[in-house]
Amino acid sequence: MITLIKRPTPSRGWSYTTPIIAVLATMIAGGLMFAALGKDPAQAIRMIFWDPLFGPNAAYFRGQLLVKAGPLILIASGLAVGFRAGIWNIGAEGQYIIGAICGASVALAAYPAESHLLFPAMIVAGALGGWLWGMIPAVLKVLFNTSEILVSLMLVYVAQNLLAYAAFGPLKNPQGFGFPGSRNLQQYPSAHNPELIAGTGAHWGVLAALVAVIGAYILMHRHIAGFRIRVAGEAPRAARFAGVVPARLVMFCLGLSGALAGLAGLFEVSGPSGQITDGFNAGYGFTAIIVAFLGRLHPLGILLAGLLMALTYIGGDMAQMMLGLPGAAIQVFQGMLLFFLLGFDVLTNYRIRIGRARA
Amino acid sequence: MNRRSFLTTTAALALAATSLPAFAEEPLKVGFIYVGPVGDMGWSYQHDQGRQAIEAEYGDKVATTFIESVPEGPDAERVLTQLALEGNKLIFATSFGYMDAVMNVAAKFPDVKFEHATGYKTADNVAVYDAKFFQGRAIQGTIAGRMTKSNKIGYIASFPIPEVIQGINSAYLHAKKVNPDVEMKVVWAYTWFDPAKEADAAAALIAEGVDVVMQHTDSTAPQAKAQEAGNVITFGQASDMSAFAPMPRVSSTIDNWAPYYVQRVGAMLDGTWGSGATWGGIDTGMVEIGEISSAVPEEVKAEALALKDAIAAGTYHPFTGPLNKQDGSAWLAEGETPDDGALAGMNFYVEGITAELPK
Q: Considering the entire predicted model, what is its pTM?
């Protein structure tokens, strides 16, 4: 007889070890899946987790790891703050898109003027765009008590349609022969977000992600606002007595996560992506939710989780290429990671007792 | 020629001369990147058929790899770089949105050749290729115009880019030619492959009374919807979709990339590969017309096949004047045909289509 007994407080020890157990369980279950597909599981796991870091051409892939992890960490840092407060922004993908559109619009409006002020202006526009898109669910929640989960998620689809409109309409490259997509900002020096040190992959967005991690750490663990946010999430009634104004908290959390997602979009469109196209958003906003939880909503955890997630993408592509694994198998593999994490979370909140309950 | 390049050239020549037998055993590595899953039974599936044709043709002289479901954006650039780093010497990038990524990576790997489908940017090591799908649409339009009873033809369009607009215009013109009462309804799905959206689009069109559904999207979902409705005919898109023959699928336009791929790999093997732009049609076999099913009356079938032969022989161009643009302004004079350049940038409907082109 196995029974689950709720712990009075979540176990700290388990909360730190479950991500590691989840990764190991994913490797085992994923390995079984790869074996069932007729591939060598050890080789596939090595290719996903080891080769991008230490295999041939690792110098290139390490840089790409930063490119891929940067936006994930930046977005997840903002989301985690809200999640801690029990405010669920599921629409980071939409805020990411709007940030990119706003930032790119500033650049394209200024084209072809060269100025050192352009890139900072784009950063402001990107953050502002994401912030505004995050404020819509915030204001609706405050005024009409709507669910921010639904509103923010639905706004992703609105944003995607705006993106298609921008790519086919006002932002279309006038020299693009009628094909959709904006000018490539990589070819516009003032607007380009380049690698800061050639070959490292690190662009301004990667730097911003690091700053966000440090900022989130200070906010959540060294500042009274962070204390209030955590109390609001864990004990809403107590928070009211402690002087937390729920409306202000909602605005702050959705605004912050929106602005960071908008920034991620801006750095992406001006750097690795280069142009506004209808397929510009690659799901970073949704993957960042996984990253936030995998990182236990802790800034440092998010940093590691973002890098791990990026590793599974890059290593996953490599395994596809070298071993002929189907793309869907890699996605299942990534899904397993979240599944096991949530599954093993039982250990954080419950004790397992094996044997008969003592009367 | 300076001393340095002289030395390297002679060294390379010497190396090539001494190690030719060794090189002969080393297979030519050819990489593919697909925008969808190979199982989409449409666009990416057909490209993968081309890849398999290369393997069948050249056996162990080539080694091919592919990566599927790569989003158009920064991921594409990484995957292309990954393919180049893994030693692929010829890389097929099979979606329009990979264009700038291909150009960036091609600049970094001057000794790797790239083939980009449906794009318009070329370089010394980048060639582009595309198929004249509008030729197939002319035949579909003829069958549709003859077979429709409601005189309403539905068209599930993907994105308002020239390739798609050419198809709508061509289908409409040829349906109108055999049936002056015909009317065209266009639904923009803004996707190349999304069974759910495509099914919705088909259902919406059928509810509006159309009894012919054409699609420029790749899934078989519209075929399934038409089958449910019973009295609606469809055409296979990209692949034959013969599972739905003889009803609702009465014919199809098949993208047959195999001859082109085999030819280009052959050119690589004998060292004659050169950059360029290829726009193949029914004549070169790049556009194939799938079997016209028994649901089509014999005389309509004969008419459609005669049209196909005329296009293949070059005696008939699907866009032959006099033709006006939608706004009534003149486009082509009596007997005039557009050159490929003008067609490649087509961004307007022809006269008679009442739908509005999204801007």
A: 0.80
